[in-house]
Structures are given as structure tokens and as C-alpha cells.
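Continuing the batch. This is chain 6 of the set; chains 1 through 5 are on the previous pages. Same settings as before, nothing changed between runs. Recording input and output for traceability.
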Amino acid sequence: MLRPHSWNLFRLFSRKVATDSRRLGIVGVPFEKGQPKPGVQDGPDHIRGIGIIKDLEDIGLEVTDYGNINYENTKTACIKNMKNLGDVAACTKVLSGKVQHIIRGGETCLILGGDHSIAIGSIDGHVTSLESDDDIAVLWVDAHPDLNTNASSCTGNIHGMALAMLCKELTDVWPYLPGMDWRKPRVSMKNIAYVGLRSVDSYERELIKKYGITAFGMHDIEKYGIFEVAERALEAINPHSNRSLHVSFDIDSIDSLEAPSTGTPVRGGLTLREGISLLEIVHNTNTLKALDFVEVNPCLGSTEDSTRTLEATKHLIKAAFGYSR
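Output for chain 6:
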């Protein structure tokens, strides 16, 4: 007999949504201005270079590669403690439009970063393509919550503010952001879940507690195991499987021994096996509509480090789209 939480997991796997497309659109975002370390802009082409498109086609997907995002910096005014806001605003606006095009065309979307600030555009594009703002669920897999604002950030790097810029509960904490008039915060914190947290600033911790955001750190994964954590996270944000799921996966959620080539590595993270299991569970919900894969920086570390990180990336992406071990 299945234990109660195992039965719930079986039930989660068994639910279907109206669209279960095998069509996948890929867009690359060679963007590094949300953080200070060069090289992350090379992530999309290096991920393509390891044969990910063929691998996805081999598991039965019809893949269209839409190439890389290009943008022009609008040279907007500076905002205190928000580095390169003009670049972030311009790039994410173009990305939002591309993601809308892909999803409205009936394809699932794979977004290859680039740093995590690109999620501002990818998630905005996803939620804008839906009938209601409440139709989206966001699973944020990351060592960091990325919930800082320009007032709380100790670095001014926008990749650490990305999710805060998307949350409608935080609309009033931001100053006017020139160049960002094209979007408004649309995602409710009740529709967000974290997995893999282990580097959380005090302001972010307060927000998670204040708004009751579903959050699982590494202690929870050690205590309950990745299967139960995944079940609880997905049930919290998508209890009826009627929301369109967006997974924003930062490679630094994986322990740096297994994925060292990333800009803000934190030891004690998910094993590769746990990351794969999590994304297999995501796939089996049949609700995944968009996946960000970000912060792969092939220029950091040795050639061996880069190869190890890219191989981990390949395994993780394949798991999200149906490769079975």
C-alpha cells in the first residue's frame, strides 16, 4: 500500500490539463547585465552546443529554435542601486514579447539564459499570454530567493531582484522604473514556491514569512526528501492542476561540486539526482508551459568545470521534457 504522501504524488502525476503539447520553442537570451561576472551571456550557445536540441527531438519533441534575443538599450535614466537597468528593461521587454508569441502559438517555451534577471521578461510574457493573472504558478528553483529591492539589495545587481519585480504584492515598494512601463507586476506570492533555498538575506526572509510564500530550503529536502518536497510545493501553487506552470531553474540550485560554473555558487545544494527527480515530477504533472534555465557561465572555472556544468544542464533539461531514466 502506498503511504499517504505517495498516494498524493500518484494523484498529482495522474492529473491532466487541456493542452499537452509536444511542440517546444527555444529562445536564447545571451544576457549578463543583471550581474557582474562576464561569460554568462555565452550560456545559450554553449547549451545548444552540447546537443540539447537533438536530445529533445530524440525523446519525441518537435523543436523550433527561435535563436537569440537582440535588443537596443534605451539609455533610460539611472535608478539608485539598480545596475544596468536600461539593459535589463530593454532585453526583458523583447523577451516578454517572444515568450508570448511562443506560448500563444501552442508551444511550450524553453528559455536559455543568461543571468536570472531574464525571468522578469519570461514570466511576464508567460502570464500576459494567459486569460487571467491567477492562471500562472511559478516554481523558483534556486539557492537564492531573488526577492530584494533596490532599497534592500547590498549589491545593486538586478538578478537578485528579479522575482520581487514580478510580485504584485510588492508593487508599491518600487520607485518609478524608467524603461519598464511596458509591464506591471502580475504574479501573486500565493502562486510561488521555492525549492533549494540556502542563501537568504534578512529582508527576503521577512517577506517569505510575511506573505506566507511556500519555501523549501535544503534542510526541508534533507528532512522530507525531494519527492515529498516537490509534491508539497506543486500542490501549494497548483492544487487543481489548472494553472500554467513556469519553472525558473537557476543552476546554482545544484551543489557547486556538480555544477561549478556559475556566478554565485553555494555549497550544500541539490544533488544532480535530486534536481533531475524534481524536474521529472514537474514533467509528469503535464502543466509545464515554460522553463527558464539560467546562470550557466561556461567561462568560470576550468574546462572540466564547464563541461561538468553543461552536462548537468543537459540532464536537467531533458528530465523536464520527458526523458525517462
